[in-house]
Design goal:
Length: 191
């Protein structure tokens, strides 16, 4: 079963909207009255309610600077490793699961890069037209798609994908949707 959700940002708060269920709210820091494991610094909490009373997971920075996804009961779900800030060409995001499985997501899959190359001449014409019309342009350098896969599987099924429109899809085999939520927020908040 595929779990699909989109990421929405407003002036007041961020939230993830899964298809067919209630939104997941993103809050900075740890929930009130809930202690964290020793040596962890809170980054953000994913909660079922806007006030953060019923948290799903808490993302913390552990010793060594890595992000850990833990449940409110301190069960370790995954470790998120983000690319360096200065990495420009196809940065790699990693999800390390407790069973030793590693999922790597490189921005821009091979098919999306080929499509981008095909569209490039039309995009250049569009940019020339924008320059002549004096209209603001959107960011045209964003990758079309990011896919998190196991290493060595170039054309295999992705455990998690993100489209250019901000829609995430999680395959039902092997990746907890709470970890996918945490990766979706960490990709944009922690850079």
């Amino acid at each position: 079963m595929t779990h699909t959700f989109t990421r929405h940002t407003t002036d007041e708060h961020d939230e993830l909207r899964p298809r067919g269920s209630a939104p997941v709210h993103v809050r900075r820091g740890a929930p009130e009255g809930r202690p964290l494991p020793e040596g962890c610094k809170p980054r953000f909490t994913l909660a079922a309610d806007p006030d953060g009373v019923s948290p799903l997971v808490v993302v913390v920075r552990k010793d060594g600077g890595r992000l850990a996804v833990v449940t409110p009961d301190h069960v370790h779900l995954a470790e998120l490793r983000l690319p360096p800030r200065n990495k420009r060409w196809r940065p790699t995001h990693e999800i390390h699961l407790p069973d030793g499985t590693v999922l790597r997501g490189r921005e821009g899959t091979v098919p999306s890069l080929v499509l981008w190359l095909v569209k490039l001449p039309f995009a250049l014409l569009y940019l020339v037209a924008l320059a002549l019309s004096d209209s603001p342009a959107e960011d045209s350098t964003a990758p079309l798609r990011t896919a998190w896969k196991r290493p060595g599987t170039l054309f295999g099924r992705a455990a998690l994908t993100e489209s250019a429109r901000g829609r995430f899809r999680v395959r039902g085999d092997g990746l907890d949707h709470r970890v996918a939520y945490a990766q979706a927020v960490a990709k944009y908040w922690e850079r």
